[in-house]
User: Fold these one by one.
Assistant:
Number 1:
Amino acid sequence: EIVLTQSPGTLSLSPGERATLSCRASQSVSSSYFGWYQQKPGQGPRLLIYGASSRATGIPDRFSGSGSGTDFTLTISRLEPEDFAVYYCHQYGSSPLTFGGGTKVEIK
Amino acid sequence: QVQLVQSGAEVKKPGASVKVSCKASGYTFIDYYMHWVRQAPGQGFEWMGWVIPNSGGTNYAQKFQGRVTMTRDTSLSTAYMELNRLTSDDTAVYYCARGEVVTGLEYWGQGTPVTVSS
């Protein structure tokens, strides 16, 4: 099983700032099958990034993904008020599919 | 547009079973795997397995082997997940999600809260 470890656990930032979220895998993941989700309280997850760097439909370009192998990054270039949420990384190339533990982006 | 509509909240006693449904619309049901993922209160996501709507084939996470059954009814475009021998640790929101090779799990149901309590 591929274990995904996200850091930091919580990120305290102000609107307009840049957010950098990390996800490290316990073994190499095909970048074709790596993604990021956003989840707000009381809601289901929303796909932001698939294939490590492709934005899902309707996702604004302030969200970008990068990385390969065991290290992946989600960057939010300028935080908008609606971006404060929990973010999860996810690999779907190897069974069992696995998710990271999440990074909470909170308002400073 | 793609929609996955799940059945409503459930309250079960320890040892009981729960069956959650997921009705798909807006696409050809048999063309995409259906996955089931759960999220315990305040926790992250846990993948449970998938069902192949075309064939009925399944792949379950080892943790749930012997306790979960995923099925589908193609005439209703509906997938089902049944979990047996419930304990309080199974209290969670259960989601169905459509699987696609390139985008992974892009479309999710609204979630079905399952509470296990005596």
Number 2:
Amino acid sequence: AQSVTQLDSHVSVSEGTPVLLRCNYSSSYSPSLFWYVQHPNKGLQLLLKYTSAATLVKGINGFEAEFKKSETSFHLTKPSAHMSDAAEYFCVVRTDRDDKIIFGKGTRLHILP
Amino acid sequence: EAQVTQNPRYLITVTGKKLTVTCSQNMNHEYMSWYRQDPGLGLRQIYYSMNVEVTDKGDVPEGYKVSRKEKRNFPLILESPSPNQTSLYFCASRRQGRDNEQFFGPGTRLTVL
């Protein structure tokens, strides 16, 4: 069975410092992986997706993620945090076998001035 | 503009009073789904539909019904709402195929007293 684990429920970083949001997945089949962002009182917006092409994926707003099959990870990074990055981030996995979509429980990112 | 719309955006109701939350998409997507979002639990899938007249249960279907009579619409029906259905609900749609991202509606905040 597939699953996705976001290792931190809250992450705090100072403005201008790097961001790392961790995601590990479990899947018996080739997964597609996504990161979504949800700003306060807003819907979900796609940041980036991995679909078996390049393992390093670039998304919007300077975010990127690297698919590491050996570590079953898809961590989200950004070199320099901005106040507008404060939001909740969801890692999502989808598999070929049954097209089922599974959300992680989310990581709330706090940006300190 | 390509979008998923939901109505109402906010709803306060009482236990047992039937309600319907509408969802409509204008992108001709085959796949539509409903999620509920609760603090610390991320998004959990309630029902999904892979095409017209085809619906299936997600992870938390109890207390909900859906229908898919037309491709663009996917209403969520609560026949007898209970307080444990107080939540934030999202409708989403996408094209069939594992690599395709989901587009989310703006959310419906439901309170059942």
Number 3:
Amino acid sequence: GAVVSQHPSRVICKSGTSVKIECRSLDFQATTMFWYRQFPKQSLMLMATSNEGSKATYEQGVEKDKFLINHASLTLSTLTVTSAHPEDSSFYICSARGGDRGFEQYFGPGTRLTVT
Amino acid sequence: RKEVEQDPGPFNVPEGATVAFNCTYSNSASQSFFWYRQDCRKEPKLLMSVYSSGNEDGRFTAQLNRASQYISLLIRDSKLSDSATYLCVVSSYGQNFVFGPGTRLSVLP
């Protein structure tokens, strides 16, 4: 399988601050990256899809001005949670797809965000 | 109706038991099907793809029934390490993955 990393793995921030999460594909070029959110005991919910060099496509109900996504290179996508609130506390997981890896998505280890 | 549905469980089974999970999907245009495994507080990991002819990987067998729009996962000779949440994933060609809510399995000693 392919390797996808996320950083940080865990972050605690105060309400009103912004947090940036990085997702990197380490051994393949990810033409598409996906950002998911998972609340406790619930399944993964797709937030947005980003293709390298273009604007992200957000799922219905996800605020694009609050969750800023940048996919500037084939190996890096970032998700910035702006003006975070306690209800944004969740497990954020990225996945990557592309290159010679076909249609399969490879998941990063996730970032646990706690907003106090 | 949700696009992908699973019985959330939990399924509590003794070691060595055989357990089966089903997953139903609503989009008849779906073409790709997967089972992922997710451990607590970890990312999902691909367990196996599901092919039309059915496929087996060791103790795990996956089957697809397009007519009834469901896929299944059978685990034989359950191990303690099989305890996890099993996610059914469905996708149409070129489209994004849609995850089911997951079925929680606990294998008991």
Number 4:
Amino acid sequence: QSVLTQPPSVSATPGQKVAISCSGGSSNIGNNYVSWYQHLPGTAPKLLIYDNNKRPSGIPDRFSGSKSGTSATLAITGLQTGDEGDYYCGTWDSSLRLFGGGTKLTVL
Amino acid sequence: QVQLVESGGGLVQPGGSLRLSCAASGFTFIDYYMTWIRQAPGKGLEWISYITSSGTTIFYADSVKGRFTISRDNSKNSLFLEMDSLSAEDTAVYYCVRETYSDGYSFDYWGQGTLVTVSS
């Protein structure tokens, strides 16, 4: 059972927007920055968002992150079939690193 | 370009040991914290350990504390994970990951992973 709670699955059609939530507590998300990772089938996970809302070089602006209180959200606009995969939030608590349980995105 | 290449995975019997290695290239290894993260079949990502750039500070997840040992050789740009007392619950793909820090911590480069299977 993860300390960070994500919905197990979300789905949407190509071109639509989807939001994935990540809920934690005051000792993790509430006091620290959040990152988001994309894990597509057969590939290594990839950093999508860091420091709550920053995108690494090469990540399209279709991906955005936000944080409010003890929750964070990853938004994906203009959904593509290639976005189908698993998405994880991450942060830390004291010196330990944490991941959410992951959300499976299905693009119908 | 940054490359992280894991090796050492394979089939091991319950109670056995295994040593994973990660060869890093394309960046100044000594400048970065390094981490091991795993994914069991059908499960999510699980952070298991990190080591600071100098190797002086180490943290472990409770699930592996006392059984796994992380280490690094900065002269050889290498990261290691010594795994003892393995059980079926340790079956997973193990990723070598670079940790970066700006305002907060994140994992910016991942290896392709090495599969560890614990079974008799």
